[in-house]
Design goal:
- This protein has no helices and ten strands.
- The protein is mainly β.
- The radius of gyration is 13 Å and the shape is globular.
Length: 115
C-alpha cells in the first residue's frame, strides 16, 4: 500500500516575481510579489508554475520540498529557507515557518509538509 499527499488541501495564488524556479521555497517580497528565500528566511510556500514575470505559489496544503542538512523530524517542525531553493531545520536565530512534517526521504533529500 502506498500513501500520497499530492494535492491535498492545495491553495495557490499568483504572485509577480522573476528569477523563481518551480519547486523553490519562496517568500513574500513586496505587494503581490514573491522572491526566492535566502538562507534562514521564513517561507510562505513553494513555486508551482513560473512564466514570464509571474509565478503560481502554493501557500497552503501538503507540499514536498528539497532540504539540506539533517533530515527534519516528523510532526510539528520549524523550517526556514536554505538559500538554495529548499528548506532546512530552523535554528533559534532564524525566521522560522511552523509546519507539520509527515515524511522525510533521506535518500532523495526531500520533506513533505503541511503548510
Amino acid at each position: 500500500m502506498s500513501v500520497s499527499f499530492d494535492g491535498v488541501g492545495q491553495v495557490c495564488a499568483t504572485f509577480l516575481g522573476a528569477g523563481i524556479q518551480e519547486g523553490q521555497a519562496v517568500k513574500v517580497s513586496g505587494r503581490g510579489a514573491a522572491a526566492p528565500c535566502g538562507d534562514g528566511e521564513s517561507f510562505c510556500g513553494a513555486a508551482v508554475c513560473c512564466r514570464d514575470d509571474a509565478c503560481t505559489v502554493q501557500v497552503s496544503g501538503f507540499m514536498t520540498l528539497g532540504y539540506t542538512g539533517t533530515a527534519p523530524g516528523l510532526g510539528p517542525v520549524k523550517l526556514c529557507g536554505n538559500g538554495q531553493g529548499g528548506v532546512r531545520a530552523a535554528a533559534d536565530e532564524d525566521a522560522a515557518t511552523a509546519c507539520l512534517a509527515v515524511d522525510a526521504d533521506e535518500a532523495a533529500k526531500t520533506v513533505t509538509i503541511l503548510l
